[in-house]
Amino acid sequence: MFKTFKKLVGRSEPKPVSTIAGVKTILHIDSSILGPYSASRILSADIVSKLKAAHPRAPVIRRDLVADPAQHLSAAHIAAFQGGDISDAALGKDLAKGGAFIDDLFAADLIVIGAPMYNFSIASQLKGWIDRVCVAGRTFRYTPNGPEGLLPAGKKVFVVSTRGGVYTSGPATTLEHHESYLLVVLGFIGLTDITIVRAEGLNIGETAKATAMARAKAQIEALAT
């Protein structure tokens, strides 16, 4: 039924979502498990609203990684990546979803990622997305001078970072494997123009939460789009 992973997701020049000259495309990704109670979902939606106000004709690609998650990376995925036959329909569907995730990145000019911190790092749902978009030959390649990201220059990324504690100062700074990881992995595939909108200390108390959210919303209001 399925041939190879390369045939499923190996398109070298993904078709853009919009072909109208000058119209930007927005990719909106959420990974919080808290639904309407999620601070990161509230703030990522605020950023998308601001981007849409600045670019009213911009189409939005929506990826809710909790409502429609990718499978965890497995030995079967690795075999498919290496050109093995894909006989399992569920695996083939998941690989096609991964290919679509990559196409999203090539199509988008503005990328908004809602990234709550869970246990000092990112949500497993977001890690599943990362495992699909970091693909040698598609989004990065190895060269004599080291790895090189293959996503075109000029894309802007807005990462919404929400955290229950405070990790930008104090004793918890050594436990932060959240924003630092995202900056590295996004840069690895060529996404280097990254703005972090942060709300931390959300679980310290209602006053701290309100202050953090107000500060993040003010940052969004001041964003250059």
Structure report:
It is a single chain. By secondary structure, the chain is an alpha/beta fold. It has one domain (24-221): 3-Layer(aba) Sandwich (Rossmann fold), CATH 3.40.50.360. Helices cover 37% and strands 20% of the residues. The chain is built from 7 helices and 8 strands; from the N terminus they run αβαβααββαβββαβα. It has helices spanning 5-9, 39-54, 75-81, 89-107, 124-133, 179-188, 206-221, and strands spanning 26-30, 60-64, 110-118, 121-122, 140-143, 146-149, 156-163, 194-200. Strands 1, 2, 3, 4, 7 and 8 form a 6-stranded mixed β-sheet that branches. Strands 5-6 form a two-stranded antiparallel sheet. Helix 2 packs parallel to helix 7 (206-221). The protein starts with a helix and ends with a helix.
Keyphrases for this structure?
alpha/beta, Rossmann fold, six-stranded mixed beta sheet, two-stranded antiparallel ribbon, 37% helix
